[in-house]
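queue> pop job 88
queue> type: inverse folding (structure -> sequence)
queue> payload:
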C-alpha cells in the first residue's frame, strides 16, 4: 500500500512540453510512473515523449482516466492550473513551481475548499512511493520500498531523512514534501492522518522548520489521535537568530511559538520523539524494532 499515489495512479503533467517538465516526466516514466498525458494550451493534438498532449485538463482526464496532476507551470499560472485540476475533479495535484504569490495561494485555498482535489505544494519536490510512482523531482535512486513514511517541509532534509531510514535498515512507504512556502496545500495534519491509516506504514519521520504553525498543529492532532504510530521529529533552525528572515518563503519567524526550541517542545509534549540532529534519526528508528 501507499498514500496519495501508487502504481495504479494515472497521472497527467500540466506544462509537460517545457524543458524541466520534459526532463522530469521522462525520469518518472522510466521509474514506472503511470503518466498518461500532458496538458499544454495550444498544443492539443500533438504527441510529446510518446504521450498525447491536450489543451485542457478536463479533456485529458476524460480521455485517459487520469486522477492526478503534476504541475510544471510558471508561478503566475499556478492559480489557474490548480483551478483547472479542481474543475476536472482530479484527486491530487502536485505543484513544483516556486515563487507563487501569497495572494494567489490564498485564492487557491478557497478554490480547494469546495473541491475533492488535494494539493501538495507549491515549491515542493513532490511525492514518491518507492518502486511505484514518482510525482515530482525526487532523486529516485536513493529510495527503496519499505515501512517508514516521511513528511517534510524541507526539500534537502527530506533526502537526508531518506538516507537515515536506509542507514537504519528500512525503506520508505511514501515520501511527501509539503513545500517551503507560507501558504501550502496539504499540511502535517493531512499527511499524518494518511500515514496513520496506511497499513504499510509502521513509523513516520516528520521534518519541520521555522515559520508558521504547521508543526504545532501537527503535534496537536497527533496528541488527540486515537491510534498512534511512532513519529520521530526533527526541526531545522536551531541556530537561527530571533526575528531573522532566512532562506525560504515559509521561514519567516513569527511571534508566539517562534523558535526551533518552541516547535520541538510542542512535538515532544505531544508524544513525538524529537531528535537534535537529522543524523540521529536512524538510531531512533532502530530502537523501534519494527
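queue> result:
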Amino acid at each position: 500500500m501507499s498514500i496519495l499515489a501508487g502504481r495504479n495512479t494515472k497521472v497527467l503533467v500540466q506544462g509537460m512540453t517545457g524543458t524541466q517538465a520534459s526532463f522530469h516526466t521522462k525520469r518518472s516514466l522510466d521509474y514506472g510512473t503511470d503518466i498518461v498525458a500532458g496538458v499544454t494550451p495550444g498544443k492539443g493534438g500533438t504527441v510529446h515523449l510518446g504521450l498525447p498532449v491536450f489543451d485542457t485538463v478536463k479533456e485529458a482526464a476524460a480521455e485517459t482516466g487520469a486522477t492526478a496532476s503534476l504541475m510544471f507551470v510558471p508561478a503566475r499560472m499556478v492559480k489557474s492550473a490548480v483551478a483547472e485540476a479542481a474543475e476536472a475533479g482530479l484527486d491530487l495535484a502536485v505543484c513544483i513551481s516556486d515563487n507563487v504569490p501569497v495572494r494567489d495561494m490564498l485564492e487557491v485555498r478557497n478554490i480547494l475548499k469546495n473541491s475533492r482535489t488535494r494539493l501538495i505544494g507549491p515549491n515542493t519536490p513532490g511525492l514518491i512511493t518507492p518502486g511505484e510512482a514518482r510525482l515530482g523531482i525526487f532523486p529516485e535512486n536513493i529510495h527503496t520500498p519499505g515501512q517508514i513514511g516521511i513528511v517534510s517541509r524541507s526539500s534537502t532534509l527530506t533526502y537526508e531523512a531518506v538516507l537515515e531510514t536506509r542507514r537504519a535498515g528500512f525503506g520508505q512507504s511514501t515520501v511527501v514534501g509539503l513545500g517551503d512556502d507560507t501558504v501550502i496545500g496539504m499540511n502535517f495534519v493531512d499527511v499524518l492522518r494518511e500515514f496513520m491509516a496506511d497499513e504499510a506504514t509502521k513509523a513516520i519521520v516528520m521534518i519541520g522548520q521555522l515559520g508558521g504553525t504547521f508543526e504545532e498543529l501537527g503535534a496537536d492532532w497527533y496528541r488527540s489521535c486515537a491510534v498512534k504510530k511512532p513519529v520521530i521529529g526533527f526541526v531545522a533552525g536551531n541556530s537561527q537568530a530571533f526575528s531573522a528572515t532566512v532562506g525560504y518563503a515559509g521561514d519567516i519567524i513569527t511571534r508566539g511559538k517562534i523558535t526551533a526550541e518552541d516547535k520541538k517542545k510542542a512535538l515532544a509534549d505531544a508524544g513525538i520523539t524529537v531528535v537534535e540532529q537529522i543524523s540521529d534519526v536512524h538510531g531512533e528508528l532502530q530502537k523501534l524494532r519494527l
